[in-house]
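User: Hi! I'm a student and our assignment asks us to look at how structure tokens line up with a sequence. Could you show me two examples?

Assistant: Happy to help. In each example below, the sequence comes first and the structure tokens follow. Example one:
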Amino acid sequence: MKTFFWNGSGSKAGKIIAMDRFDSGRSLFPIRQAEAYWTALLSGDGVPKRSQIDPRGLENILEYTFILERIAPGLARFRLAGSHLNKIAGMEVRGMPLTAFFDPSARDQVSEALEEVFAAPAIGEFSLVSKGKLGRTRLQARMILLPLRSDLGDVSRVLGVMVSDGAIGATPRRFGIEDTRIRALVNIQDQAHNSRPVEAGFAEDQADFQRPAKHLRLVFSRDE
């Protein structure tokens, strides 16, 4: 895999970024679990398909999990999102663009990184911070973006996880980017594993979708 790093100013840097724990020492287990699950689905055909994602394999981290759909260069919207993301945003985020979670000054950088995830394809990992102001405490977050193919074969979906560490508060949070790590997939067939058959996937186009109380509702369907 090819790796490069961006610092918060958007320039590439050669330093190694610690992304295994928050400053508080809290583990980033949901992010590492999602990455391990995605990696296990890699095959000689390339990155996994959206339809291969089985919610049962992510059941204990669904509240942090989301699915994105690419709708334009550097722009993707939420097709599904767990309750943790709704809490951070202070509203249901389904249908919103990913950039809605970011400060205006950070949106160009996240759009550039997102397009790299789709185009390379690549894994994108972000170290985020929402600065404390107006009585709110500083809030750290981590996010990972894992590319997926649609049933048409194009890389236009993302399996993602976002985890925060700290008090969210009652008002919506927006984040700046402290660090970005992009890991482009090179010689993917050499590192791929045979994907296992699955019989379920996240359902996205259900008209009766409701905001989950504690995690995403499991709906078993073969449809995209």
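Example two works the same way, sequence first and then tokens:
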Amino acid sequence: MHRISPLGLPACSSLLATIGLIWLGNAGTSAGVLFLAATLYGFGKTFFWSTTLGVVSEQYPRGGALLLNTISGVGMIAIGTLGATYIGTIQDQDFNQAVQAQASDMHDQVAQDKTGLFPDYVFIDKSKYDAFLKGQQETLDGIERETKQHALAKIAYLPAIMFVCYVGLILYYKSQGGYKVEVLVGHKAEDEKFTGGTEGPGEA
């Protein structure tokens, strides 16, 4: 029976995540379309963490728990510290540019310089909305909803880069004779020796 490489799953997942983010960023306000796009993206990103740790444990078994925790820590830093901040910065910058283009008469009153983890930029200070009439505030809110949604499509290049990297790894292992599990025993990894004579987990 043909088996897909463990790298094939995250490669497919990153492709689905890319499509999902692009779809989310251009889905408009339809609840049904937003739900479908979010579901596609959620399905795509579900297997990244577990599959990556599985591949690391199979290729570098000597690293043990220390290596797995290191990989997990790097992932948390990338997602929580850098990723979330970067996405917020993109959304703020896009919102500022959209207000400057679509509501220039209000822009100077709400634009503020901001210093953060990334280079300084101008953002829209929502605490200054009180100076505007209700209709003007609704205009700004509408611009914000649209630009922040479109920002999701902009960051779709991140999983797209992951897709390219996974494909590169698949091609590399293929050039080496295929993906093989590294084991700390005196024989190569044979599923029958690790799963009780079956090709996969047996059922009771």
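Here is something you could point out in your write-up. The radius of gyration is 23 Å.
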